[in-house]
Amino acid sequence: MSIESVLHERRVFAPGKDFSSQAAVGSMEEYQRLHTEALQDYEGFWARLARELLIWHKPFTKTLNQDNAPFYKWFEDGELNVSANCLDKHLQTIPNKTAIIFEADNGDVKNVTYKALYHQVCQFANGLKSLNLVKGDRVIIYLPMGIEAIVAMQACARLGIIHSVVFGGFSAKSLNERIIDAGAVAVITSDGQHRGGKTLPLKQAVDDGIAMGGCDSIRNIVVFKKTGQEITWNDKCIWWHDLIAGKADECAPVMVEAEHPLFLLYTSGSTGKPKGVQHSSAGYLLHAMNTMRWTFDIKPDDIYWCTADVGWITGHSYVTYGPLAIGATQIVFEGIPTFPNAGRFWEMIQRHKVSIFYTAPTAIRSLIKAGETDFTTHPNHFDLSSLRLLGTVGEPINPEAWMWYEQVGGSRCPIVDTFWQTETGGHVITPLPGATKLVPGSCTLPFPGIDIDVVDETGKEIPWGTGGLLVIKKPWPSMIRTIYNDPERFIASYYPAELGGNIYLAGDGAVRDATTGNFTIMGRIDDVLNVSGHRLGTMEIESALGANHLVAESAVVGRPHPIKGESVVAYVVLKGKRPEGEEAKKIVTELREWVGKEIGPIAKPDEIRFGDNLPKTRSGKIMRRLLRSLAKGEEISSDISTLDNPAILDQLKQAVS
Ligand code: 6R9
């Protein structure tokens, strides 16, 4: 495979003196020193950090166990508690510091100190204990973005309960699958949620998901009263406020082994079923914390804001765990960037004096567009002088959006374009803002200690300047430990034999700049789409479509989209006749709604095209390459000699309008 890079970015932004002089890693020499330290004594490097940053109940003596590779174990004989590392340790030093500034959808603001958060977490943990939930149990958290979601996650961590957060935008069906796969014993949810001025149901999806069957493992449903809307109730349900009533606000943390699973988080892979990515306690927290220091250069006075929902890995590492472990003050925002208008983020940065702001390229692109039509929502309209660092995550940021974001920071703020994945636990390629020279569109260089590179399909290193597969050659503490219930899929997905079986395959294509070694990510090499920074498997959407009674066969591809990054285009063959006109429109609506119900609104195809068949090779393989070209409206000039039924292409050129 050879991937051509189209990006020839020549603009370079060196870190400003003011920033570097105060930064945790303040120069390229300092970066090199860390890099060399890791190179010379890899285990020693991570062991030093783990001793410096984490508070151990029982110190570890072994750093890395590779006996059962690729099921690596880090710090395995050590014991600690993640919640104690996020909360208890601050009680002596910063009890009255604000941990969370919560801003609701409607603009109401509530501050929570470290001490208050500690007590809330303890009290809720005591509630969970009274339901006989114990270390190792799996609990689904299905809550809107807010203080309760963080409290619920931290309370689970306090008791060694393995949480699995399901994003509030996922459907009943998705919940059902995750409950079954995780063998969850409880669900923590709320009656409803507020988003963009609307009140939406949440508990309903839990009821529907459980009603789909197979969820007998569920013993309790804890419901936070958020909206006060009417909900159905059964004897498994208990109100959050009733659960904590009269419970003590102290709760001894349960000490767990370093490798004890902290959480499962389901994410899309290249086959239909989402993967339950399993993370550890110690190694995971170590990297979440250390990246807060080195990537975000966090300082005691910073007002930090990561806009991600806790339903995604970014919300886990950079809302629930990293910022609390480091003792930061952070904004937690319930709403959406465009309500009441597209100036919401900038207005909030101005009002709360946010100094570090971390968001997704898709949000930036949508705000660029909005600001062009309504100047009152443009960042220039606000006082953003509190900002000192900007960050992005989730997908490649195009240089134009990068340059616009740079202006948001008044050309004063470094931008950290952080590349990482659910599976990596935290940043693996990113600028360190006091050291790295920034290049728009490039996530620049490996985080110190992460041995990341680009190789060919056999796992051989290739020269800089040539595109290939992004891999990580050594295990690292915050790496995925396994796919829950499916160790074979873990190996097949991430440690494939083709690459030798001992290097981690990220699933992205990448190229290193021939002179600087800077990385540019070229997108997924597998059948995974990135829609608004959210990972969606094409196979997942195809399975959902296939489950509809009208559908015989389908193929889903991504098409570049100016704001969302990629949009979903579905090619569908119906069991009946190929529909036309009004009938086609009706079926499109039905199928879009169907996918929304099966997976969630984010997975709804933007476009559906009907054919009598799909383009296939003589061996019966769907030619996705052709479908991608068709979706983009490109003429098919490439070789179609292996195509069994070329006439089909004409049908598939047309979208239902
Ligand atoms: C953290 C997160 C992971 C996939 C990843 C890649 C894409 C994430 C990126 C980026 C280019 C960046 N991705 N950050 N691509 N530049 N800075 O997003 O995790 O939801 O698991 O997605 O997202 O394709 O493989 P996750």
Automatic annotation (TrEMBL):
Protein EC: 6.2.1.1
Catalysed reactions listed for this entry: acetate + ATP + CoA = acetyl-CoA + AMP + diphosphate
GO molecular-function terms, A-Z: acetate-CoA ligase activity; AMP binding; ATP binding; metal ion binding
Domain AMP-dependent synthetase/ligase: 88-476
Listed GO biological process terms: acetyl-CoA biosynthetic process from acetate
Keywords of the record: Acetylation, ATP-binding, Ligase, Magnesium, Metal-binding, Nucleotide-binding
Domain AMP-binding enzyme C-terminal, residue spans: 540-621
Function recorded in the entry: Catalyzes the conversion of acetate into acetyl-CoA (AcCoA), an essential intermediate at the junction of anabolic and catabolic pathways. AcsA undergoes a two-step reaction. In the first half reaction, AcsA combines acetate with ATP to form acetyl-adenylate (AcAMP) intermediate. In the second half reaction, it can then transfer the acetyl group from AcAMP to the sulfhydryl group of CoA, forming the product AcCoA.
UniProt name for this protein: Acetyl-coenzyme A synthetase
The species this protein was found in: Methylophilus rhizosphaerae
